[in-house]
């Protein structure tokens, strides 16, 4: 697997407040790499450094073995980004005009038919000729994503891309991201708080905690290493959680002997939500 981004000993503080502390990792070509961490963990800060929008205090970021600073304008041909709350679209232009504008910016010829198809795909066809300042947040987000896809960049950064999207748009976006990675070999670096996004997309995850990496590896390993089976007994007055099956059986017998009314007795696998809550509590 080809390594395309290499981050070494990266650090960043804001007003003496360390946000990223000496982290190192690399991103491989064609993978979907998800950066996780609770609110304020430094995900957006990290992405901005990877895009050279924000300068690091120390450490190196290399693209294809070459320092990020040497790329200049070329970095913007190689990468594309939809940042959190970013208003990359223009309110006084219509949806079609925005797409035409961005296509021209990226020197890409695009036919009206193709624009309409893109809008259709994201359920924006009806708003094609409406000015964007009247759009809802979700509609603007969808249009931003369409525009970010126009430069055909090899590396795509998506900061909470599904925020504000309705169910269908969410599903369409996940399908599209998966297709870009698996069929078009694009590298996707994404942040999200939504576990359906992690579950359906993640090849590898990086978990930021107090500015450090608390997990880096394949999504399957993340789940396996943190997996936990437990047994849950619910009575009409209380609930008991035990990790050992024999102890759970004994507890159940005892409760029955004591005359407790058992509502349910279930085996559970710890979910990704529970795993992340535990990590985030620790940070
Ligand atoms: N320009 C800045 N000046 C000062 N502090 C900043 C600046 N940008 C970010 N921070 C702080 O750095 C920390 C990390 O912010 P960041 O936006 O990277 O977090 P995040 O992981 O993306 O959070 P969220 O999940 O809420 O989007 C926060 O405490 C934030 O207040």
UniProtKB/TrEMBL annotation:
<dbReference type="InterPro" id="IPR051782">
    <property type="entry name" value="ABC_Transporter_VariousFunc"/>
</dbReference>
<keyword id="KW-0547">Nucleotide-binding</keyword>
<keyword id="KW-0067">ATP-binding</keyword>
<dbReference type="GO" id="GO:0005524">
    <property type="term" value="F:ATP binding"/>
</dbReference>
<protein>
    <submittedName>
        <fullName>ATP-binding cassette domain-containing protein</fullName>
    </submittedName>
</protein>
<dbReference type="GO" id="GO:0016887">
    <property type="term" value="F:ATP hydrolysis activity"/>
</dbReference>
<dbReference type="InterPro" id="IPR003593">
    <property type="entry name" value="AAA+_ATPase"/>
</dbReference>
<dbReference type="InterPro" id="IPR027417">
    <property type="entry name" value="P-loop_NTPase"/>
</dbReference>
<keyword id="KW-0813">Transport</keyword>
<feature type="domain" description="ABC transporter">
    <location>
        <begin position="5"/>
        <end position="235"/>
    </location>
</feature>
<dbReference type="InterPro" id="IPR003439">
    <property type="entry name" value="ABC_transporter-like_ATP-bd"/>
</dbReference>
<dbReference type="Pfam" id="PF00005">
    <property type="entry name" value="ABC_tran"/>
</dbReference>
